[in-house]
Specification:
The structure is a single chain. The protein is an alpha/beta fold and about 375 residues long. The protein has two domains: about 210 residues, Isopropylmalate Dehydrogenase (3-Layer(aba) Sandwich), CATH 3.40.718.10; about 110 residues, Rossmann fold (3-Layer(aba) Sandwich), CATH 3.40.50. Helix content is about 40%, strand content about 20%. It has twelve helices and twelve strands. The strands form two sheets. It has a ten-stranded mixed β-sheet, with helices on both faces. Strands 6-7 form a two-stranded antiparallel sheet. The mean pLDDT is about 95. Bound molecules: 3-isopropylmalic acid (IPM) and magnesium ion. Magnesium ion binds next to α9.
Length: about 375
């Protein structure tokens, strides 16, 4: 039976990079993994067409799909519209209503790119860490929220709130993933100033002691964690943290790898009756409106997000390895978009040249 994929290219460079992902999906479709693809609008393009960043109909398709692939959303023309209608709200609605609580953000440094990081080669070469960010709670969704007027002045309010079951389930995700890696988890919070941070720490420890005593667990304050991520990132294997700290720490980790254009992500829910989680895959980078439509965007983060779909939604670990290997090969051959040229210069490849080269490398790998 074919796997159903809902593709939401979104805004800015989203459609260009997704066109390259479709070439890769097509390759696997011709080589033994059948896909059934639907496409939908999400973000600013949905607002332009329907007045909302995502329609109920598209939400229903996302809920029903085996996996959702998303490009990127947003653009400067939407910065002034009502907060509740902004392109980003589509992302938050997908995450919340699909209950995608575990956001996996690997930061892996490809050897061919170790010199592109702003950090020294020895700090980043061989780096392979995984940030597991809680994605459906915390300050992103807590109530009360808003801006009101108190005593004649405006007050902005957001609420950081976590239940113990929300903490426990994402901690389990992190421990499970660690068991398939180096078996180490570092949990980050601010238990020195936040009661909710203290609860986070306690619950992660309790889940560990009761269910995952074989995994090595450490705790770090999130500010110290940020410092350690840029000082000596290879000390980490899996980092588990809340929604807001995860947002920030994952951008810092992204830069270790040389380019934001390289980083994929997976957002997973609890296993369903068929044993598979609801899932959404997207690059960590944004819609890059400054280079949209010019064929300059790096499609690799989006293509590697599809590799994560192969791994986590379709039980096709070998296919995922093969795709990651093809990406590595293309980088090693020196074919790169402008973001990966750095000081040394050279010719910048176009978005579609990179996609074509990855498909050709998939062919050769057979
Ligand atoms: C991310 C992004 C989003 C977030 C924005 C676009 C809402 O920064 O996925 O990291 O803050 O979660
Ligand atoms: Mg972010």
């Amino acid at each position: 039976m074919a796997h159903s994929l809902l593709i939401l290219p979104g805004d800015g460079i989203g459609p260009e990079i997704m066109a390259e992902v479709r070439k890769v999906v097509g390759w696997f479709d011709r080589n033994g993994i059948a896909f059934e693809i639907e496409e939908g609008l999400c973000g600013g393009c949905a607002y332009d067409a329907h007045g909302v960043p995502i329609t109920d109909e598209t939400m229903a398709k996302a809920q029903a799909a085996d996996a959702v692939l998303l490009g990127a959303v947003g653009g400067p023309q939407y910065d002034t519209i009502d907060f509740a209608l902004r392109p980003e709200r589509a992302l938050l609605r997908l995450r919340k209503e699909m209950d995608l609580y575990a956001n996996l953000r690997p930061a892996k440094c490809f050897d061919a790119l170790a010199d592109f990081s702003s950090l020294k080669r020895e700090v980043v070469s061989g780096l392979d860490i995984l940030i597991v960010r809680e994605l459906t709670s915390g300050v992103y969704f807590g109530e009360p929220r808003g801006v009101s007027v108190e005593g004649g002045e405006r007050v902005g309010i957001n609420t950081h709130r976590y239940t113990e079951s929300e903490i426990a389930r994402v901690a389990r995700s992190a421990f499970e993933l660690a068991r398939r890696r180096q078996n180490r988890v570092c949990s980050m919070e601010k238990s020195n100033v936040m009661e909710a941070g203290g609860l986070w720490r306690d619950v992660v420890q309790e889940v560990h002691d009761a269910e995952y005593p074989d995994v090595e667990l450490s705790h770090m304050l999130a500010d110290a964690g940020a410092m350690q991520i840029v000082r000596w990132p290879k000390q980490f294997d899996v980092i588990v943290t809340d929604n807001l700290f995860g947002d920030i720490l994952s951008d810092a980790a992204a830069m270790l790898t040389g380019s934001l254009g390289m980083l994929p992500s997976a957002s997973l829910g609890a296993p369903q009756a068929n044993g598979r989680p609801k899932a959404l895959y997207e690059p960590v980078h944004g819609s890059a409106p400054d280079i949209a439509g010019q064929g300059k965007a790096n499609p690799i983060a989006c293509i590697l997000s599809f590799a994560m779909a192969l791994r986590y939604s379709f039980d096709a670990g070998e296919a995922a390895d093969r795709l990651e290997g093809a990406v590595e090969q293309v980088l090693a051959d020196g074919l790169r978009t402008a973001d990966l040229l750095g000081q040394s210069g050279g010719r910048a490849a176009s978005t579609s040249e990179v996609g074509d080269a990855i498909v050709a490398a998939l062919d050769r790998a057979g």
